[in-house]
Automatic annotation (TrEMBL), chain A:
Gene3D superfamilies for the chain: 3.30.2320.80
Function as written in the Swiss-Prot or TrEMBL entry: Involved in the maturation of [NiFe] hydrogenases. Required for nickel insertion into the metal center of the hydrogenase.
Family per record: Belongs to the HypA/HybF family.
Keywords carried by this UniProt record: Metal-binding, Nickel, Zinc
Stated name of the protein: Hydrogenase maturation factor HypA
Organism: Desulforapulum autotrophicum (strain ATCC 43914 / DSM 3382 / VKM B-1955 / HRM2) (Desulfobacterium autotrophicum)
UniProtKB/TrEMBL annotation, chain B:
Molecular function terms from GO: GTP binding; GTPase activity; nickel cation binding; zinc ion binding
UniProt keyword terms in alphabetical order: GTP-binding, Hydrolase, Metal-binding, Nickel, Nucleotide-binding, Zinc
GO process annotations (BP): protein maturation
Gene name of the record: hypB
UniProt-recorded name of the protein: HypB
Keyword Transferase set for record: no
Start and end residues of each CobW/HypB/UreG nucleotide-binding domain: 33-194
Lineage start: Bacteria, Pseudomonadati, Thermodesulfobacteriota, Desulfobacteria, Desulfobacterales
Taxonomic source organism: Desulforapulum autotrophicum (strain ATCC 43914 / DSM 3382 / VKM B-1955 / HRM2)
PANTHER family cross-referenced by the UniProt entry: HYDROGENASE MATURATION FACTOR HYPB, HYDROGENASE PROTEIN ASSEMBLY PROTEIN, NICKEL CHAPERONE
Length: 115, 220
């Protein structure tokens, strides 16, 4: 499991994004985008965040996770579709060359400070 | 108050991976990231591979393990330069990240290597997520595991450049559908070469060695 490392990175990114002139900031919400294909287990991530944010401005932060579908495009026929399940073959022409458009996201889109 | 961030969490790793890739390009070293589940016979496959390609292809190996040096010790017997990274000092991580590769590779004599193989930690989930600056990825699976492994770990197979289906010498004794395993890999990653072989008997080794050799030669 690498959720602890991911959580640590998230805390680092969030802390760096808080403007210096805010006194005693407290991060209430962290808005995340996580692709279905990213190897991140949501429960583990929540648990790791809880542990790692103790005594930081992120303590008790609410993780709002937007789950991003796996989208693919066939390089041969241009067909675009949402990949459900693990197979990646183009349902249009059954050819091989498939390009991944989304699904591997692991991003912080914004954070919300408590008033 | 909302603050826009829009930052990728793995960016630090990706930046380091790019730096590694530049270094490896400069040194003309082909880097192969070998991944597998635990017990698939990755080290044995590597040992037999090294015995076939050395000394023509000067090879170094970085072995990742959570806490033992058993694998590196076995690999050194082939004459290759093998360095072990133990991740227990980094919290028992489940994968090798780019900064660990940087730290280790820069201590190796890259000017005298054609090929650097990174034997990643036995785990089909996490290593797939971390770019280390490699040129190619090979995933090793064995016939003692389920035929559906590729479907369960799609990212690993999606991002691999080739796959090895190991331990085919055991097929007569198992109720294993090798065709189904290979078909499942093709579903996830159509067109990916799959080498069915036995590291023990070395049956089926030629196509794999040819693939690896041609990849290495393309970078020299
Ligand atoms: Zn198509």
């Amino acid at each position: 499991m690498h959720e602890m490392g991911v959580a640590q990175q998230m805390v680092d990114i969030a802390l760096a994004a808080i403007p210096d002139d805010i006194e005693n900031p407290r991060v209430a919400v962290l808005n995340l985008r996580i692709g279905k294909l990213a190897a991140v287990v949501e429960d583990s991530l929540r648990f790791c965040m809880e542990v790692i944010t103790k005594d930081t401005p992120l303590e008790g932060v609410n993780l709002v996770i937007e789950t991003i579908d796996v989208r693919a495009r066939c390089k041969d026929c241009g067909h675009e579709w949402v990949v459900e399940g693990p197979a990646f073959r183009c349902p249009g022409c059954k050819q091989g060359a498939v390009e991944l458009l989304s699904g591997r996201e692991l991003e912080i889109s914004s954070l919300e400070l408590a008033d | 108050m909302e603050i826009k961030v829009q930052k990728r969490v793995l960016e630090a790793n990706e930046t380091m991976a790019e730096k590694n890739r530049k270094l490896f390009a400069e040194k003309k070293v082909f880097v192969l990231n070998m991944m597998s589940s635990p017990g698939s016979g990755k080290t044995e496959t590597l040992c037999k591979t090294l015995l076939r390609i050395m000394p023509e292809i000067r090879t170094g190996v970085i072995v990742g393990d959570i806490c033992t040096t058993n694998d590196a010790d076995r690999l050194k017997e082939t004459g290759a330069v093998a360095v072990q990274i133990n991740t227990d000092q980094f919290g028992g991580d489940c994968h090798l990240a780019a900064h660990l590769i940087e730290r280790t590779a820069t201590q190796m004599d890259l000017d005298h290597l054609d090929l650097l193989i990174v034997e990643n930690i036995g785990n089909l989930v996490c290593p797939a997520e971390f770019d280390i600056g490699e040129d190619a990825r090979t995933v090793v699976l064995s016939v003692t595991e389920g035929e559906d492994k590729p479907l369960k770990y799609p990212l690993m197979f999606r991002l691999a450049d080739s796959a090895i289906l190991n331990k085919i010498d055991l097929l007569p004794y198992l109720d294993y559908n090798a065709k189904e395993a290979v078909d499942n890999m093709a579903e996830i990653h159509p067109g990916m070469p799959v080498f069915s072989l036995s590291a023990k008997t070395e049956e089926g080794f030629e196509p794999w060695i040819e693939w690896l050799t041609s990849k290495v030669n393309s970078k020299i």
